[in-house]
Design a protein that fits this description.
Number of helices: 15
Helix content: 40-55%
Oligomer: single chain
Order of helices and strands: EHEHEHEHEHEHEHEHEHEHEHEHEHHH
CATH architecture of the largest domain: 3-Layer(aba) Sandwich
Strand content: 15-25%
Number of strands: 13
CATH superfamily of the largest domain: Glycogen Phosphorylase B
Strand order of the largest sheet: 3-2-1-4-5-6-7
Shape: globular
Largest sheet: 7 strands, parallel
CATH topology of the largest domain: Rossmann fold
Length: 395
């Protein structure tokens, strides 16, 4: 059987949800026993990484064929963008791809236009959260909505990781309802809740007292994630629970401002900024409560990871976060930009161990809904559906 050739263009392979989703999809379709020999999946990305860290080496280590396209950059640059378009089109023609499946804003638009120009039979795009959001100026928002409309015109299907993104897209006139399919972003959950280092050993390594309650977050230190709201919430929790310790796992362009905020709030002695870590499953076992302060999201992958660890969650009601967190069932949803309310809910959990355990157990029971195996199975089925539809329309 001739394998189905698939190309996944993505702007950057930083450590992030869209990037891990892309890497895992390519890895599983290439190598998982259920799909072995059925697919030949390649990834193409731009050269930029950043303070968030890079998945380029891990993608290659997994045996996924990866091409770096120097012209594919995140910022808008007409000369670079034109060159990237023509290089992508040539790559798609030479590779004779059956499917092009794009990710992220820049690669999503350029990749779909190039695929349509190269006459690729099936063109798919995954919306890992829309490129437009409420924090933009009206002019910026109109510009990005126009780009999304252009990309939707060039593609055959829009995958969203949250049903809320269907409503947001349709409200802006992006595609038709029948163009949308919901496939939740899949996470490798096996290691979460099964740490290689015992929690008390990890606490000792971090210097956290054995009996101290710990509030933790795994996040990018970038405007989207509102890490300064996280610091304000930590400061408020510290006033109400002086025995609490705080952990922030991750890095990003706001690292310096976060460090200053922690010092200015007087919580530096009990706050750990770990930077980028690859032992997140072990770090999460130290937490008693998981928090996330995002202003906008697709479906944050850290939430299923926290659920699989058995942690109650307090997070902002940012788009796809509500897909993972059910109010009062496995956590609490709070208004965006309101660190005081978020802090109050965290303190409620710290003060009530029974509630913490109940919400954590509910999250652990629901976590398998977000497993990578389920995501890849749905993507495989979607590819087959689109190829059959294409074949029938040409018969």
């Amino acid at each position: 059987m001739t394998p189905v050739r698939v190309l996944h263009p993505i702007t950057r392979l930083i450590i992030g949800g869209a990037q891990e989703n892309t890497m895992l999809t390519a890895d599983w379709l290439n190598h998982a026993p259920a799909y072995r020999g059925q697919y030949a999946v390649d990834v193409v990305c731009g050269p930029q990484t950043g303070a968030e860290g890079s998945l380029i080496e891990e993608t290659r280590a997994r045996g996924v064929p990866l091409t770096i396209l120097p012209e594919l950059v995140r910022q808008i640059s007409p000369p670079q963008d034109v060159r990237a378009f023509f290089k992508l089109r040539r790559m798609m023609r030479q590779g004779r791809y059956d499917i092009v499946h794009t990710h992220s804003s820049k690669a999503g638009v350029l990749g779909r236009l190039a695929a349509r120009s190269a006459r690729v039979p099936v063109v798919v795009h995954t919306v890992h959260g829309w490129s437009f959001h409420d924090q933009m100026t009206p002019a910026q928002r109109r510009f990005y909505v126009a780009l999304e409309k252009l990309g939707a015109w060039a593609g055959d299907s829009l995958i969203v990781v949250s049903p809320q993104d269907i409503d947001k897209g349709l409200a802006q006139g992006i595609g038709r309802r029948q163009d949308y399919t919901v496939i939740r972003s899949g996470v490798e959950l096996d290691r979460f809740g099964h740490p290689q280092t015992p929690p008390q050993v990890m606490r000792a390594q971090l210097g956290v007292p054995a009996s101290a309650p710990v509030v933790g977050s795994v996040t990018r230190l970038s405007p989207q994630k509102a890490p300064l709201d996280l610091v304000r919430a930590y400061a408020q929790i510290a006033r109400l629970r002086p025995d609490a310790w705080f952990v922030i796992v991750g890095d990003g362009p706001l690292r310096g401002e976060v460090e200053r905020g922690v010092r200015d709030a007087g919580i530096a002695p009990q706050t750990l900024l770990t930077g980028l870590r690859r032992d997140v499953p072990e770090l999460m076992t130290v937490f008693d409560v998981f928090v996330l302060t995002s202003l906008w999201e697709g479906l944050p992958r850290v939430l299923p990871q926290a659920m699989a660890t058995g942690l109650p969650i307090v997070c902002t009601a940012a788009d796809g976060s509500a897909e993972a967190v059910s109010e009062g069932v496995n956590g609490f949803l709070t208004p965006r930009g309101d660190p005081e309310t978020l802090a109050a809910r965290v303190v409620d959990l710290l003060d009530d161990p029974t509630l913490r355990r109940r919400l954590g157990a509910s999250g652990r029971a629901r976590a398998p809904e977000f497993g990578v195996d389920r995501m890849v199975q749905q993507i495989d089925q979607h590819y087959q559906h689109l190829r059959a539809r294409r074949s029938n329309s040409h018969s």
